Amino acid sequence: NGQSLIIGSVYGLNTYDSTFWKRFISQVSSLGDVPILLGGDFNLVYDTQVDRSSPTTREGFSSSRGLPMLCNLLQIVDTWRLLHPAERDYTHMSRAHATLSRTDYILVSQSHLSQVQGVEIGPIMISDHAMVVLRWGVLRAGPRPRTWSFPLHVFPDPKFHTF
Fold first, then answer.
1. What is the 3-state secondary structure (H, E, C) of the chain?
2. Buried b or exposed e, range 65-80, using 16+ CB within 10 angstroms
């Protein structure tokens, strides 16, 4: 419908650096009053009591406030926590520390939360992170476009098999 949307992928530093996050917030804010969808490995937990398998304040006061401050300043919301307020699930497994943490997020502008249809955390399988999947509903105006389908008549054609 001609609306702009900022879609960003974030990889936060492994150690908390307030300068990095201040610059990040400043740069995103400078893009104007545009809805935001950010996803990625923020390397921060939102709440040290529920987003770690072993609750701790090990990160220190500043870093434990980092993600809530980011969300507050950019008016974005942790979509998984919004839809799963009482659940505990994790997106990162640290073999070195034998802990699980939720450091991967999909954050969406408060103004566009009605388009979030679902958010799920997948299993930790190949790497030390799980994927986070967002189901996003796009409001459409007018009739639905026709869907393309593969032409089934080419399957028996020998040329198709040698391609």
1. CCCCCEEEEEECCCCCCHHHHHHHHHHHHCCCCCCEEEEEECCCCCCCCCCECCCCCCCCHHHHHHHHHHHHHHCEEEHHHHHCCCCCCCCEEECCCCEEECCEEEEEEHHHHHHEEEEEEEEECCCCEEEEEEEECCCCCCCCCCCCCCCHHHCCCHHHHHC
2. ebbeebbeebebbbbb
**Among 42, 21, 60, 45, residue whose Cα is nearest residue 99:** 45
**Predicted confidence band of residue 14 (pLDDT cuts 50, 70, 90):** confident
pTM of the model: 0.78
